[in-house]
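User: Please fill in residues for this 241-position structure.
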């Protein structure tokens, strides 16, 4: 399998979610137009029903149910709530396409007719609003679009397509959980790994591509605060008692 057909299909699937102009290379634009209404409905459904990190049960089940009919071997519960879907299509490289599943504890105030009104109880017992504010709903719907288009066009490529739905991206824990649960030992180890993200710096209708590592970073900050005045007041209050 050449890498090009999968990348082209990924671009088509991304254009499905972004309502970008018609494209024509490898996969026919008519196929994209045909699945667009259904993919848009999926996007709205995922947007209305967000779930926080490691609680993406409905989200994972939705994605699994969408790709199974296309012939994928689907495994759920990887790394907690992760999804792995494999489509084998003869000899050739293994290509992985990854999406995130989780949403954020943020209240949505977009006013959209399909806006999230979801709320959930977190471990502390607090009730928090939940919404997709980082584009994971777009990524997931594009991921499903890729799955359907690649399955319908098996004659154009050969190899193995590995679709991964990663939980808990927002808290930087889901990838490690999936790896520890055997992502690259219980399943094929990919020769190529692709990910995607919506991009606010590009005009609507434009899709960018970057090889190698890109915007993959996690930064921590350790801070020590010295409050001498506060400690002095604490000592005085304690001595009074």
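Assistant: Residues filled in for all 241 positions:
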């Amino acid at each position: 399998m050449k890498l090009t057909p999968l990348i082209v299909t990924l671009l088509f699937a991304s254009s499905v979610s972004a309502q970008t102009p018609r494209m024509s290379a490898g996969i026919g634009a008519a196929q994209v137009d045909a699945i667009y209404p259904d993919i848009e409905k999926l996007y709205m459904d995922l947007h209305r029903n967000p779930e926080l990190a490691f609680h993406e049960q409905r989200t994972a089940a939705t994605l699994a149910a969408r790709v199974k009919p296309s012939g994928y071997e689907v495994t759920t519960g990887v790394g907690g709530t992760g999804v792995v879907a494999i489509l084998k299509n003869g000899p050739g490289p293994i290509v992985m396409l990854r999406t995130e599943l989780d949403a954020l504890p943020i209240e949505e105030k977009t006013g959209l007719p399909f806006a999230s009104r979801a709320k959930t109880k977190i471990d502390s017992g607090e009730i928090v609003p939940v919404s997709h504010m980082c584009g994971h709903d777009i990524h997931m719907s594009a991921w499903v679009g890729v799955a359907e288009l690649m399955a319908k066009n098996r004659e154009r490529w050969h190899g193995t397509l590995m679709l991964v739905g990663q939980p808990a991206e927002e808290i930087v824990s889901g990838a490690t959980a999936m790896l520890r649960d055997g992502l690259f030992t219980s399943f094929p180890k990919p020769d190529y790994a692709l990910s995607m993200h919506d991009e606010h710096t590009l005009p609507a209708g434009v899709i960018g591509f970057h090889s190698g590592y890109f915007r993959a970073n996690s930064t921590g900050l350790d801070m020590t605060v010295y409050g001498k005045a506060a400690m002095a007041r604490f000592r005085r209050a304690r001595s009074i008692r």
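For context: Residues 1-7, 10-25 have pLDDT under 50 and may be disordered.
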